[in-house]
Amino acid sequence: METQTRVIGHRTPRVDGEYKLTGKADYTVDWQAEAMLYGYPVPASIAHGNLVALHLEEALAMPGVVEIFYDGNFPELSRSPNSMAHQDQVSEVRLPFEDSRIHYAGQYVALVVAESFEQARAAAQAVRAEYRQDAGAIGSLLDSEADGQPLEAKRQVRGDADGAFEQAPVKLDQTYSIAAESHMQMEPHATLAEWRDNRLIVHESTQGVIYQQKAMARVFGLAEEDVEVISHYIGSGFGNKLFMWPHAVATVAAARELGRPVKTVLPRQQDMTCGGNRPASRQRLRLAADEQGKLLSIHHDSATETSLVHTFVDAIGSVSPSLYACDNVAISQHLLEVNHGTPCPMRGPGETSGIFALECAMDELAIALNMDPLELRRRHDSRDDPAKGLPWSSKHLDACYDSAARRFGWARRDPVVGSMTEGDEILGWGMATSSWFAGRQPCAARVELRADGSIMAACGTQDIGTGTYTVIAQTVAELTGVAIEHIEVRLGESSLPAGPLSGGSMATATTLPAVAKAVRAAIDELKEVATAENGAFAGADPETLTLEDGALLDEQGKRASFSEILTDHKLGSVNGDGDTAPGDERKQYSFRSFGAHFVEVRWDPGISRIRVARVVSSFDIGRAINPATARNQVEGSIVMGIGMGLLEKLEYDPRDARLINNNYSDYIVTCHADMPEIDVELLDNPDYAFNEFGARGVGEIGLTGVAPAIANAVHHATGKRIRDLPITIDKLLAD
Amino acid sequence: MMEHSETRSQGSGETTVNLTVNGEPCQLTLPPNVVLLDALRDRLGLTGTKKGCDHGQCGACTVHIDGQAVNSCLRLAVMCEGRHITTVEGLASDVGLHPVQQAFLEHDAYQCGFCTPGQMMSAAALLEDSRIADDDAAVREAMSGNLCRCGAYKNILSAIQDARRHVSPQRTEGESP
């Protein structure tokens, strides 16, 4: 089913662009309410122990201080049931100030509320706490010998991996580790809470207005309709704004107790400490092959972190049974409780970490086999999903390998370590496979065709910067023929028809079918009006009418715009509602996106400087609804992947488990000057088995595979196999 | 403690400061520990300028003070007596978007948009600064105080180089800002 499109699949400037470029976009941190107070949390300075006493006298006497909340001065609330199925999942089930126990450094011990930001901050710094510190705080899984508890639910077995490994002539057994990472989204977590007549209005920088609405309702014992969560613009969230955090609960409670709106914006230090992180991981990979390079077994045993106040499982082994054809696979995972802020999903959660280990191991296996690493992967490209035994809906990984390898010049690679030089620099060329699952969620949407010729589309999802406003406008434009500038898209309010989280790269494939259904329902309504008595097409069969360029058209060529029809009938609008959910397609196919990264690093052996110089990538992501925003997503993911590969590490002091580098100077992210040449290609193979627009989502896949491609390139340049991210200069200097 | 780098101040007493913001004279009476960024956002309602770190590390708060790009989180408002301040709200003119804004729109030089005001203020200043060479490496270096976690750097660079066609450098060699 190949259809010609006029707007979908074409580069379209963001419909919210001008708001973002002129300072008019209303992010959560920008909102102010009348008589608003400012909240500022007080973080615990120990990671493990008990709060013994809080000395508040000095702080309470300071100018502008209205109240200080803490264990002992905080209302009784209910924990959220924390259910994905019921959409009330939270980031920490423990409520703020629940007891005196301290589980990690930075945990809030108090919330100061004052008339101004400056007053709240000054008073928060004047709060004195006494602690009883317990021994044995664990700052990182990577400082611990222990792996924690085994997770039975994450165990997967196919064939006889142990037997195959035992018998195989070529074996690899290596352990890889990744430091905890910080999301570092530019807009910190922020809440503005306002109670009006026992109704709660929360402005929250969130990736899920509906989830936050439901979680708030559970915690404060309210009917869902009495909670409104608003998030029109989000200064991004890379997974850490999916589910509600304690700062939001504390702020809402403070606003209720004080009878005034309260706004809390986490200072960056606290945002990094207790606003989520990608957990550190340790992964043992065992691969076995025959002498011809056939993969005989994959063992992927991993351990990840969670905190003591919440169970978060980063699904680190989930892609390994599906990435390559292999008969014998065994996956296991352990979970260790550590004394730092609670981990949560971070862009490409689980699979990004898992693919790092698997793709480094594949490179090492290729070297052991004396085989080209690309060739090893090509031989195991599978037409079916080996984990499910179902055919892939649409898979063009081979085309990704071909195209990216050709553009990169892979055929010119000399496999001898350190053999490719340019001036004083040694070039390293490495590659890796990239992949991310394709999912869809239930979704509702509403569309209004209005008498003034404009169209409004509404959905209770949100745009975190991926371009959701724009792809919805494109969809409406495509189906109605109305120009983009006459289409208004409303998102980011929990009172709108329930839409999905902006997570899992699922928003596009989830929302567009619902919006399309709502558009068609509105058009049907319009036809009913137009064919009724006194209508422009009175007596005509609605089935014979079509909508083109915003006008109804009959078979004789008679036209009437929807604006004229509505005006003639004195109607302000006709409306359509659309509800969609994934169907039976998952019984027939397995859905996943694929890609390939080829990376060139340059290493100056004199000073051991390593830089990524070039990244060439191709992706099979179905159809890109908007090639401009889709490409931007992938390029941005590659930028983040360079950080993961070379720069990023949350450093917890091994002595007391406190986070050392909780700021933008000491936790290093990729900046302008780090930018390599980036060449991204999006193949255009619409996946119509997945949804009518053929889109599989593009927000995360670009990150998977970047770090291992870098690590493999680093080995090719330096001969050093660094199995521990990030690959910093000290590791390259070590013998 | 976690907030070790922040100063402790109770801010007793208030001070009056006169500024020109986006061409409009304005007088503010505020405690001396209010930084320019918070004065613009909380007291003047100019929320286009963003706070990403409050420590001069991310560049989201970049504004122009007398034409120079500055991290507004590192200036106390009371230090700006008599200064001309331009924020993102003052970047466009009656004739439309500033060439940098127009180029950001056309090149999709943003995603979430939160760092964007700071990116554009730095870009607008560097295009007028003849001391900064016009090659890509020089622009990347000059822009490296503005972090973009969405990673839209490639498009930001191409937008700046495109906008260059419409902006003529004003500050010349050796001239102090």
Automatic annotation (TrEMBL), chain A:
SMART domains: Ald_Xan_dh_C. Keywords: Molybdenum, Oxidoreductase. GO terms for molecular function: iron ion binding; oxidoreductase activity. Residues 22-135 form the Aldehyde oxidase/xanthine dehydrogenase a/b hammerhead domain. It comes from the Bacteria. The keyword Membrane does not apply. InterPro entries: Ald_Oxase/Xan_DH_a/b, Ald_Oxase/Xan_DH_a/b_sf, Ald_Oxase/xanthine_DH-like, AldOxase/xan_DH_MoCoBD1, AldOxase/xan_DH_MoCoBD2, AldOxase/xan_DH_Mopterin-bd_sf. PANTHER family: ALDEHYDE OXIDASE 1-RELATED (PTHR11908:SF132), XANTHINE DEHYDROGENASE (PTHR11908). Belongs to the xanthine dehydrogenase family. This is Xanthine dehydrogenase YagR molybdenum-binding subunit. It comes from Modicisalibacter muralis. The lineage of its organism: Bacteria, Pseudomonadati, Pseudomonadota, Gammaproteobacteria, Oceanospirillales.
From TrEMBL, chain B:
Gene3D superfamilies: 3.10.20.30, [2Fe-2S]-binding domain. GO terms for molecular function: 2 iron, 2 sulfur cluster binding; metal ion binding; oxidoreductase activity, acting on the aldehyde or oxo group of donors. Residues 15-91 form the 2Fe-2S ferredoxin-type domain. Transmembrane segments: none annotated. It holds the Pfam family Fer2. Keywords: 2Fe-2S, Iron, Iron-sulfur, Metal-binding, Oxidoreductase. PANTHER family: OXIDOREDUCTASE WITH IRON-SULFUR SUBUNIT, OXIDOREDUCTASE, IRON-SULPHUR BINDING SUBUNIT-RELATED-RELATED. This is Xanthine dehydrogenase YagT iron-sulfur-binding subunit. It comes from Modicisalibacter muralis.
